[in-house]
Structure formats: structure tokens, C-alpha cells
Amino acid sequence: MLEILAYAIGVMYTPGPVNLFALNSGLNGRFASSLGFFAGVGTAMLLLLLLFGWVGARWVRGDALLVISALGCLYIAYLALKVMRAEVSIDGTTQGTRLRFRDGLAMQLMNPKGLVATLPIATLQFPHAGIEGPGLLLASLGLAVLASGAPGSYALAGFLAGRRLGNPRVFKTLNLVMAVLLIGVAGSIGYEHVYLPLQV
């Protein structure tokens, strides 16, 4: 089980589109209002772990991953544009960038990183550790809570850093930087998981 936790933490807590959105949300003083987003991420991970744990990897073919990755790129770019266009008020909070449960659920379900995290755990590590049946549900629930904590920790770090910043121009600049980073992430996913597979 320690190997599963080490792998899950290593994959879930490294920077990615979900964690960058959460960081931006925290920087803009929206930690509390993003709790639904964190729950959506955890729910998506739970669904993926259970799906792959019960049916295995045979459902995830190259074509399906290609479509999921393409949709994920478009969704990440769309949310990045929302972050870029968000208006910053005098108190430094950003209007119109509240992340909700459905955003976390959709983003994580279409995030290739989510598949990279769940496929090896559900199809290799769970069976190797003898995790099946009710144990599969319990282990998946635990990992889903851990997955919710990843964007939560990024948002908390952003919130604590954001409280020290009082200038709305700084927040606007941070939003632009985050949006550019997210568009870069979308481009990277598109290149690695959509463009390159189409060249084969």
C-alpha cells in the first residue's frame, strides 16, 4: 500500500492544470468558495479508480484517450481565458472566476494526468496488493480524498500568499501569468497526447 500512496502523492501533488487553477483561486482569495471544486476533483478520481479497478484498462484505447485529451485541452484553454479576462476589484478579489464542483469534476475527468494517475493504480497496483471487492471501494475513497487535497493544498498556499499582497495590479498580473501557464499546459497536453499520437 505504501507504493500506491507514494505514486499517488507524486502524481497528484505535482503541478498540473487542476493544481494551477486551484493556486490561482487561492491567490485571488477564493479558497473557501472553491471547496466544491476540490470535491469535484476527488469525485472524478473516485469514478476513474472504480471504473478502471472494476473493468480494467481494456476500455481505455488510444482513440478514447486521444478524444479525452483533446476535450481536456479545449476545456483548460477555455478556463484559462476566463482567468485572463477576470476583473479584479479594489480588495484584490477576482470576480467571475469561482471554481465549482462541476469544474473540478469535468476538468479532472478530461485531464490526461488523471488517467496517468489512476490507470496504473487501478489496473496494476491494486491487483498486486490484493485490493478488490469492498477493499477496492475503500482504497479508492481514500485516494479520492487524497486527490481532493492536492488542489486544496495549492489553493491554501495561494490564499496565504495572496493575503500578503494588496495591490489589485499584482493580482491581475498573477491572473495573466496563471492563464499563460495554463494555456501552455493545454498546449503541452495537446502536443503529447493528441498531435504526437496522430503522427504514428
TrEMBL record:
It comes from the Bacteria. GO terms for cellular component: plasma membrane. GO terms for biological process: cysteine export across plasma membrane. Coiled coil: none annotated. It is found in: Cell membrane. It is a multi-pass membrane protein. InterPro entries: LeuE-type. One of its GO terms (molecular function) is amino acid transmembrane transporter activity. The chain crosses the membrane at residues 31-52, 64-81, 136-161, 173-191. Keywords: Cell membrane, Membrane, Transmembrane, Transmembrane helix. This is Threonine/homoserine/homoserine lactone efflux protein.
